[in-house]
Design brief:
alpha/beta, 6-stranded parallel beta sheet
């Protein structure tokens, strides 16, 4: 089989490897589509912990080729979208039922070979069967939708909740749609400088879309909700945006951090924790959100198709990374088509 192997940051080659065989509790998946996630781009650039050489890619969908002897519930021929990582099952967190906080989690595409290959082996327990109503091209984003589901659930969004989302990338626009499905009534996107991203946010249902550097930003946001937002998601990946989130949230509201920061958050407005009695929480995975994510995709309440702007092949893996890390106006979600 062919596999894209990241030898070290920015050094990737296509290699021939033996077709893998499943362990007793594993499945072999013929990869159909892989999404280029922001984390993949950081691994590509050497800005995120990884065990090189590694086959990158962790957001994907494919067809089960074979299953291990102890596998139940998944059969050859099933279309599945696996979780991005899985716990060790033996540490203190796992023993306490807090597997999502396992310090030894195995991450596909970072600590174990991922999906930018014709075939990949994963534990059967993380492979979710995809509803037949979902286009496999869209199912590659299941991990992202599940992460948004968990973040929205942790933020207690209900009918009538006013929400602000800082960021206008893939994660931010999934949050937009999941929050709407949960009942949020009044969602503002505070995005970056790329007008195409802001236009896509409007297309996907944002009630207010403003640019972060727009001189009228504060006036527009203040006119949208005078008392502040009930929930603010920080999904831009920019440390300085956390203070903006704290400023936007109403007294007693919730700020949910949905970003991975490469740098420290400087001069955090910590006094607002006292004066506004706000809650700041993080949300980092899709644990517990996969079944709901499948339902949202199947029902059409979450749309992935409009976000996909570029499609590459396995042989074009480098071009995919270069597109995904570019700041080009035309680029939003880049996916790889492996076998269809």
């Amino acid at each position: 089989m062919k596999a894209a192997v990241l030898k070290e940051p920015r050094h990737i080659t296509i290699e021939e490897r033996p077709l893998p065989a499943p362990g007793s509790s594993e499945v072999v998946i013929q990869v159909m589509y892989v999404g280029y996630c922001g984390t993949d781009v950081m691994v590509w650039a050497g800005n995120y912990r990884a065990r090189y050489p590694v086959v990158p890619g962790h957001e994907f969908v494919g067809k089960v080729l074979s299953v291990g002897s102890a596998v139940e519930g998944v059969r050859a021929g099933d279309i599945v979208a696996p979780e991005a990582s899985y716990p060790c099952g033996a540490c203190a967190m796992c023993s306490s039922g807090l597997e999502e906080y396992c310090r030894n989690r195995v991450s596909l595409g970072r600590m174990r070979d991922g999906a930018m290959a014709e075939y990949v082996v994963v534990p059967a327990k993380i492979a979710h069967r995809v509803d037949e109503r979902i286009d496999p091209r869209d199912a590659q984003s299941l991990v992202g939708v599940a992460c948004a589901v968990r973040a929205v659930a942790k933020s207690s969004i209900a009918t009538g909740t006013k929400v602000a989302i800082i960021g206008s990338g893939h994660s931010a626009l999934l949050l937009l749609q999941v929050a709407r499905a949960a009942g949020a009534d009044g969602i503002a996107i505070l995005g970056g400088s790329r007008k195409s991203h802001l236009a896509l946010a409007r297309h996907l249902g944002a009630d207010l879309v403003v640019g972060y550097s727009d001189p009228d930003t504060d006036r527009l946001l203040g006119g949208f909700t005078r008392s502040g937002f009930d929930v603010v998601f920080e999904a831009s990946g920019q440390p300085e945006s956390l203070n903006k989130a704290i400023a936007l949230v109403r007294p007693g509201g919730v700020v949910t951090v949905f970003s991975t920061y490469r740098e420290a958050v400087d001069h955090m407005q910590g006094q607002e924790l006292y004066y506004k009695e706000i809650t700041i929480r993080g949300s980092k995975s899709g644990t517990g959100g996969y079944e709901a994510a499948i339902d949202l995709l199947a029902s059409g309440k979450v749309q992935v198709g409009p976000m996909i702007t570029h499609e590459v092949t396995l042989e074009e893996v480098r071009r995919g990374f270069e597109l995904a890390e570019s700041r080009d106006e035309s680029v939003f979600r880049v996916i790889m088509r492996v076998v269809t």
